[in-house]
Amino acid sequence: MAPMNAPNDEVAARAVLQQWCAAFEAADASAIAALYCTDAVMFGTTTQQALVGRAAVQAYFAAAFAALGLRRLELSQVTMQAWSQDTWVVGALDALHPLPSGPALRGRLSLVLRREASGWQIAHFHRSALPG
C-alpha cells in the first residue's frame, strides 16, 4: 500500500472528480456511473431515499439530464482529505449553469472515494441544494 497522503493518490483522487465533472457536463450518465463502486450509496438532490449501486446512479443521472438538459458545472471551495490509505473525502460547493443561459442551481457536494482494485472510485455521494 502507498503511504497515507501520497501525492500520486491525491492526483488520482482529483482525476476522479475531474472525470465526474466532464461526464456531468457531457450529460453522460453511463460515464458517471462507471466512476462509482458497484455498492456505491448516493443521495441525489431530488432523491427521497438512498440509491444503491451503479444502475441506480445511472438511472438517476439519465433522468436528471433529461429534465435539466446540458449544464456547465462550476466547483468552488474544493477540499480533499485523506482519511486512510484507501479513502479520500471530497467536499465542494457547486453551481450548475443551464446552457445557453439562465440562473444557476447552487449546491453542496460530498464524495467519499475508495481505492478499489481498478483504482479510485466513488463509494458515497451526496448533493443538496444550498439554502436560500
Description:
- The protein is of the alpha+beta class and 132 residues long.
- It has one domain: Nuclear Transport Factor 2, Chain: A (Roll), CATH 3.10.450.
- The chain is 30% helix and 45% strand.
- The protein is built from three helices and six strands, in the order ααββαββββ.
- The protein has helices at 7-25, 29-34, 54-68; strands at 36-43, 51-52, 71-84, 87-98, 105-116, 119-129.
- A six-stranded mixed sheet has the order 2-1-6-5-4-3.
- Strand 4 (87-98) and strand 5 form a beta hairpin.
- The model has no long low-confidence stretch (mean pLDDT 91).
Descriptive keywords:
45% strand, globular, 6-stranded mixed beta sheet, alpha+beta, 3 helices, Nuclear Transport Factor 2, Chain: A
- How do the helices and strands follow one another from N- to C-terminus? HHEEHEEEE
- Count of discrete structural domains: 1
Radius of gyration: 14 Å
Helix/strand/pairing class, anyone?
A: alpha+beta
In order across it, which strands form the biggest sheet? 2-1-6-5-4-3
Distance between the amino and carboxyl termini: 44 Å
DSSP helical segment count? 3
